[in-house]
Design a protein that fits this description.
Blueprint lengths: L2 H11 L6 H13 L5 H11 L5 H13 L3 E4 L7 E4 L4 E6 L5 E5 L4 H11 L10 E3 L2 H12 L1
Parallel strand pairs: 3-5
Antiparallel strand pairs: 1-2, 3-4
This protein binds zinc ion (3 copies).
């Protein structure tokens, strides 16, 4: 099934109404493919529906998040970015070259379990990215250390 159809079906299943704005925002998220800010989404939405304004995009994203169809994440110091919540994943972000990679959420299961068991803390790992140095930047660092 196509991603857009799946998202609409998801929305229906959560009891959400299908409005024009919701359809446009979902379509923009599918079109964007990567992680986009509300402003990025507005640009995509407005190319088809110029009557939709930023406040509507924010309100729509908010509603779609509550319905569990859309998720946002903070990749660094910048604004929140949005994505469809159809495949659970975590983000690893390089603070040297700003590359973003998606990794399976299962990688963090043990950490989640330990925090819950030992600290009675229920962590929401995927609200923030994990920051570090990517393999390419590590390679460059290794080389420069040799010189
Ligand atoms: Zn947030
Ligand atoms: Zn993502
Ligand atoms: Zn990097």
């Amino acid at each position: 099934m196509k991603r857009m159809e799946a998202a609409i079906q998801n929305l229906r299943a959560s009891g959400g109404r299908i409005t024009n704005a919701r359809r446009s925002v979902l379509q923009a998220l599918v079109t964007a493919r990567t992680h986009v800010t509300a402003e990025d989404l507005l640009n995509i939405v407005q190319s088809e529906s110029p009557e939709i304004h930023l406040s509507t995009v924010y309100r729509t994203l908010d509603a779609l998040e509550k319905l569990g169809v859309v998720d946002h994440v903070h990749l660094g110091h910048g604004r929140a970015v949005y994505h469809l919540s159809d495949n659970a994943h975590q983000h690893i972000v390089c603070d040297k070259c700003s590359s973003v990679e998606e990794v399976p959420s299962e990688l963090f299961l043990q950490l989640e379990k330990d925090l819950k068991d030992k600290y009675r803390f229920k962590v929401r790992m995927n609200h923030f990215a994990v920051i570090g140095t990517c393999s390419q930047c590590l390679e460059k660092l290794d080389k420069s250390e040799l010189n």
